[in-house]
Amino acid sequence: MLPKWKYYRIFSSNNHHSITLPMAMNNQFTPIEYLVIDHFCSLNKLASLTSYTPQFRCLILHKGKSNDSNIMVLLSSITLANLKWIYLNLSQTTFNELEIFITKIFPNLKSLSIIKSEDITFLDAHRWEQLILNYFPQLEKFYLIYDDYVDNEQKYPIYTRRPN
Asked: Among 6, 1, 56, 45, which Cα is nearest to 23's?
């Protein structure tokens, strides 16, 4: 154990590099409170990583990607009660994956920031309202930044209704 470490940043310029850790067992914990992940990481791999860090206060994920297995299996034993602030830039994650992830392990969240594009389900204000009211009673700040491309060459569905 490294008792003095409070902050840790993981960075890789290689998009194909991946974090692979088994779930923590037998009290294999670290006292890290602030973690910044600045390379591609799925929510599954993030769940494995967080199993080692029950003291998290702040988590920043710059390049969230789609999951490669069933996330529910990984989340059954993780709770990050100290985590108050999370920032997730989700390039390939679905709303359903995010919803399962954040409702299972972040019970005391005070600030939630999400950056997303190319998935209009993230613009459903009613769904966000229900999620926040039912799972995050202590949430004080919520930020959703949604980017969409004007030329839409990939033919993603575009949100055409008025904001609700």
From this structure: 45
Q: Is residue 100 part of a domain?
A: yes
- Does residue 3 form part of some domain? no
Structure tokens at 13: 């310029």
| Amino acid in the structure at residue 141 | K
List pLDDT tens digits, range 105-143: 788 899 999 999 888 899 999 999 999 999 999 999 999
Q: At 61, list the tokens.
A: 């994920």
Q: What distance in Å separates the CA atoms of residue 77 and residue 25, rounded to the nearest whole number?
A: 10
Cβ contacts of 152 within 8 Å, gap of 6 or more: 158
Place of tokens 């030329």: 151
Per the listing, tokens 């670290």 go with: 30
Q: Assign 104 a pLDDT band (cuts: 50, 70, 90).
A: confident
Instruction: Give the pLDDT band of residue 47 (cuts 50, 70, 90).
Output: confident
Tokens found for residue 63: 């390049």
Q: Residue with structure tokens 């930020």?
A: 143
Tell me 156's DSSP state. -
Instruction: Supply the range of the domain harboring residue 56.
Output: 28-147
Structure tokens at 112: 């939630």
